[in-house]
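Feature request, filed as a ticket because there's no other form

It would be nice if the structure record came with a short human-readable summary line next to the C-alpha coordinates. Right now we just get the raw output. Example of a typical job, pasted below so the devs can see what we mean:
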Amino acid sequence: MTTSATSDRLAALDVMVDRQEIHDALTRFSRGMDRFDRDIFLSAFHDDATIAAGNFVGGPIDLYEWAGATHELGQVSTHHNLLNHTCDIDGDTAHTETYYLFVGRNHDDTNWIAGGRYIDRVERRDGQWRIALRTNVIEWSGIVPTMGIPFADVPDIHVNGAPSRSTTDPSYQRPLTNMRNPHVPD
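Raw output as currently delivered:
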Protein backbone atom coordinates (compact mmCIF):
# COMPACT_ATOMS: atom_id res chain seq x y z
CA MET A 1 0.00 0.00 0.00
CA THR A 2 1.38 3.43 -0.89
CA THR A 3 1.97 6.12 1.69
CA SER A 4 -0.88 8.12 0.17
CA ALA A 5 -3.27 5.14 0.34
CA THR A 6 -2.25 4.44 3.93
CA SER A 7 -2.80 8.08 4.84
CA ASP A 8 -6.23 8.06 3.16
CA ARG A 9 -7.16 4.88 4.99
CA LEU A 10 -6.10 6.30 8.36
CA ALA A 11 -8.12 9.46 7.68
CA ALA A 12 -11.16 7.33 6.82
CA LEU A 13 -10.69 5.36 10.06
CA ASP A 14 -10.58 8.63 12.02
CA VAL A 15 -13.93 9.62 10.48
CA MET A 16 -15.41 6.22 11.34
CA VAL A 17 -14.27 6.54 14.96
CA ASP A 18 -15.75 10.05 15.16
CA ARG A 19 -19.05 8.85 13.67
CA GLN A 20 -19.22 6.00 16.20
CA GLU A 21 -18.47 8.30 19.14
CA ILE A 22 -21.19 10.69 17.92
CA HIS A 23 -23.68 7.83 17.58
CA ASP A 24 -22.71 6.61 21.07
CA ALA A 25 -23.58 10.06 22.47
CA LEU A 26 -27.00 9.94 20.80
CA THR A 27 -27.56 6.44 22.18
CA ARG A 28 -26.67 7.60 25.72
CA PHE A 29 -29.54 10.10 25.50
CA SER A 30 -32.01 7.32 24.62
CA ARG A 31 -30.74 4.83 27.19
CA GLY A 32 -30.50 7.45 29.91
CA MET A 33 -34.11 8.53 29.34
CA ASP A 34 -35.52 5.01 29.13
CA ARG A 35 -33.66 3.76 32.22
CA PHE A 36 -34.10 7.05 34.15
CA ASP A 37 -30.31 7.15 34.45
CA ARG A 38 -29.50 10.83 34.93
CA ASP A 39 -25.73 10.43 34.58
CA ILE A 40 -25.92 8.56 31.28
CA PHE A 41 -28.54 10.98 29.96
CA LEU A 42 -26.50 14.07 30.85
CA SER A 43 -23.32 12.52 29.38
CA ALA A 44 -24.93 12.87 25.94
CA PHE A 45 -24.94 16.68 26.17
CA HIS A 46 -22.48 19.48 26.76
CA ASP A 47 -23.45 21.37 29.93
CA ASP A 48 -24.41 24.48 27.93
CA ALA A 49 -26.45 22.58 25.30
CA THR A 50 -29.84 23.85 24.15
CA ILE A 51 -32.65 21.41 23.39
CA ALA A 52 -35.95 22.27 21.69
CA ALA A 53 -38.39 19.37 22.18
CA GLY A 54 -42.15 19.90 22.04
CA ASN A 55 -43.02 22.79 24.31
CA PHE A 56 -39.64 22.50 26.10
CA VAL A 57 -36.68 24.72 25.24
CA GLY A 58 -33.75 24.68 27.65
CA GLY A 59 -30.69 22.85 28.92
CA PRO A 60 -29.95 19.18 29.57
CA ILE A 61 -30.57 19.16 33.35
CA ASP A 62 -33.95 20.84 32.98
CA LEU A 63 -34.79 18.53 30.06
CA TYR A 64 -34.01 15.44 32.14
CA GLU A 65 -36.19 16.65 35.02
CA TRP A 66 -39.08 17.69 32.74
CA ALA A 67 -39.01 14.67 30.40
CA GLY A 68 -38.45 12.20 33.23
CA ALA A 69 -41.44 13.54 35.16
CA THR A 70 -43.55 13.58 31.99
CA HIS A 71 -42.68 9.95 31.18
CA GLU A 72 -43.15 8.83 34.78
CA LEU A 73 -46.63 10.34 34.87
CA GLY A 74 -47.63 8.97 31.48
CA GLN A 75 -45.83 5.67 30.87
CA VAL A 76 -44.70 2.56 32.71
CA SER A 77 -41.98 2.04 30.10
CA THR A 78 -40.52 3.88 27.13
CA HIS A 79 -38.29 3.02 24.18
CA HIS A 80 -36.50 5.80 22.30
CA ASN A 81 -35.33 3.86 19.23
CA LEU A 82 -32.73 5.41 16.91
CA LEU A 83 -33.05 4.56 13.22
CA ASN A 84 -31.57 6.11 10.03
CA HIS A 85 -28.62 8.33 10.85
CA THR A 86 -26.65 10.81 8.78
CA CYS A 87 -23.62 12.63 10.09
CA ASP A 88 -21.68 15.43 8.42
CA ILE A 89 -18.40 16.09 10.25
CA ASP A 90 -16.42 19.27 9.79
CA GLY A 91 -13.47 19.33 12.20
CA ASP A 92 -14.81 19.42 15.77
CA THR A 93 -18.41 20.06 14.71
CA ALA A 94 -20.90 17.60 13.24
CA HIS A 95 -24.47 17.98 12.06
CA THR A 96 -26.64 14.89 12.36
CA GLU A 97 -30.14 13.83 11.47
CA THR A 98 -31.39 10.72 13.25
CA TYR A 99 -34.83 9.27 12.65
CA TYR A 100 -36.49 7.93 15.79
CA LEU A 101 -39.38 5.77 16.79
CA PHE A 102 -40.74 6.41 20.28
CA VAL A 103 -42.91 3.77 21.93
CA GLY A 104 -44.42 4.10 25.38
CA ARG A 105 -46.56 1.71 27.40
CA ASN A 106 -49.01 4.05 29.12
CA HIS A 107 -50.33 3.61 32.64
CA ASP A 108 -53.78 2.79 31.21
CA ASP A 109 -52.19 -0.11 29.23
CA THR A 110 -52.50 1.67 25.88
CA ASN A 111 -49.41 2.01 23.72
CA TRP A 112 -48.32 5.36 22.35
CA ILE A 113 -46.10 5.45 19.29
CA ALA A 114 -44.56 8.48 17.63
CA GLY A 115 -41.94 9.12 14.98
CA GLY A 116 -39.74 11.96 13.99
CA ARG A 117 -36.17 13.12 13.73
CA TYR A 118 -33.53 14.46 16.09
CA ILE A 119 -31.55 17.15 14.30
CA ASP A 120 -28.37 17.83 16.24
CA ARG A 121 -25.25 19.93 16.22
CA VAL A 122 -22.66 17.80 17.97
CA GLU A 123 -19.34 19.23 19.08
CA ARG A 124 -16.06 17.68 20.17
CA ARG A 125 -14.75 19.51 23.21
CA ASP A 126 -11.85 18.24 25.29
CA GLY A 127 -11.89 15.11 23.13
CA GLN A 128 -15.58 14.32 23.85
CA TRP A 129 -18.35 14.35 21.24
CA ARG A 130 -21.60 15.55 22.80
CA ILE A 131 -24.80 17.24 21.69
CA ALA A 132 -24.56 21.06 21.72
CA LEU A 133 -27.93 21.82 20.07
CA ARG A 134 -30.94 19.57 19.45
CA THR A 135 -34.16 20.17 17.61
CA ASN A 136 -36.79 17.44 17.90
CA VAL A 137 -39.03 17.24 14.83
CA ILE A 138 -42.13 15.16 15.66
CA GLU A 139 -43.78 13.99 12.43
CA TRP A 140 -46.55 11.61 13.51
CA SER A 141 -48.12 10.02 16.57
CA GLY A 142 -50.81 7.49 17.45
CA ILE A 143 -52.16 4.87 19.79
CA VAL A 144 -51.75 1.22 18.83
CA PRO A 145 -53.98 -1.62 20.07
CA THR A 146 -52.96 -3.23 23.33
CA MET A 147 -52.30 -6.88 23.95
CA GLY A 148 -50.87 -8.69 26.93
CA ILE A 149 -47.11 -8.72 27.34
CA PRO A 150 -45.85 -12.09 26.01
CA PHE A 151 -44.72 -14.67 28.57
CA ALA A 152 -45.91 -12.60 31.56
CA ASP A 153 -47.35 -15.79 33.04
CA VAL A 154 -44.00 -17.67 33.08
CA PRO A 155 -43.21 -18.07 36.80
CA ASP A 156 -39.45 -17.44 36.58
CA ILE A 157 -39.51 -14.89 33.73
CA HIS A 158 -37.84 -12.19 35.86
CA VAL A 159 -35.30 -14.32 37.72
CA ASN A 160 -32.54 -12.76 35.60
CA GLY A 161 -33.95 -9.34 36.42
CA ALA A 162 -37.16 -7.46 35.76
CA PRO A 163 -37.36 -4.55 33.34
CA SER A 164 -36.85 -1.36 35.32
CA ARG A 165 -36.51 2.37 34.75
CA SER A 166 -33.47 2.35 37.02
CA THR A 167 -30.02 0.84 37.38
CA THR A 168 -31.67 -2.37 38.67
CA ASP A 169 -32.59 -3.14 35.03
CA PRO A 170 -30.84 -6.35 33.83
CA SER A 171 -28.88 -4.31 31.25
CA TYR A 172 -26.68 -3.01 34.11
CA GLN A 173 -25.77 -6.49 35.37
CA ARG A 174 -22.04 -7.16 35.08
CA PRO A 175 -21.22 -9.82 34.28
CA LEU A 176 -24.53 -10.79 32.72
CA THR A 177 -25.53 -14.21 34.04
CA ASN A 178 -28.45 -16.60 33.63
CA MET A 179 -30.23 -17.78 36.78
CA ARG A 180 -33.15 -19.51 35.02
CA ASN A 181 -33.29 -23.31 34.79
CA PRO A 182 -33.01 -24.90 31.35
CA HIS A 183 -36.42 -25.44 29.75
CA VAL A 184 -37.43 -26.26 26.18
CA PRO A 185 -41.21 -25.82 25.70
CA ASP A 186 -43.13 -28.73 24.23
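Something like this underneath would help us a lot:
DSSP finds three helices and six strands in the chain.
The chain has a mean pLDDT of 95.
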